[in-house]
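Hi R.,

Here's the chain you asked about this morning:
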Amino acid sequence: MAHIDYYFSVFSPWTYLAGLRLEDIAARHGAQIIYRPLDLLALFDRTGGTRPAARHPSRMDYRRQELDRWADRMGMKMVAQPTIYPPNPAPASYAIIAAQNSGAAPVGPLVHGILRALWADDRDISQDDVIRDILRDTGFDEALVTTGLFDGAITYEKNLDSAIVQGVFGAPFYIVRESDQRFWGQDRLDFLDAHLGTLA
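And here is the predicted structure, written out as tokens:
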């Protein structure tokens, strides 16, 4: 069985646009996904990236066009500029970590539900009531918002350190452990799919 370390941010529009394609690919190849939410802005700071707020306007204008193109191609609703952006990613990330540890249900729908809440429904995903709703709707105990805080905080910090060691510099980022093949961006999922086929 292949194992995919999946590094992502709960407020990354590109992670939202990945939808549930990773989960479909993993299921097709019998691969296991390890969800590793991280602090994307801190990752940029530590790997030579530039935070969006500091990027040249021409780069940000092009980014907006690309997001529109991809949302249209994927048939996904997308709010051009969420009201609260960037939201504090920690609470939702902690909840994802706690949910994964609980093993109560598949984690993919939870991750996508949080991203969809931000990018399609314009909800503030840093708020406990929003996270509780999504946990409940995806088969998890909504109490994980509070009970998962301690372990979530520790793992969240470790995920950032692990990402840097493994060569991660953006999100979404996929690493196949068995081959150390790395794929950056939702537009590289076809390459990940093809690679997993070579490991069978």
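One quick note: The longest strand covers residues 3-8.

Cheers,
M.
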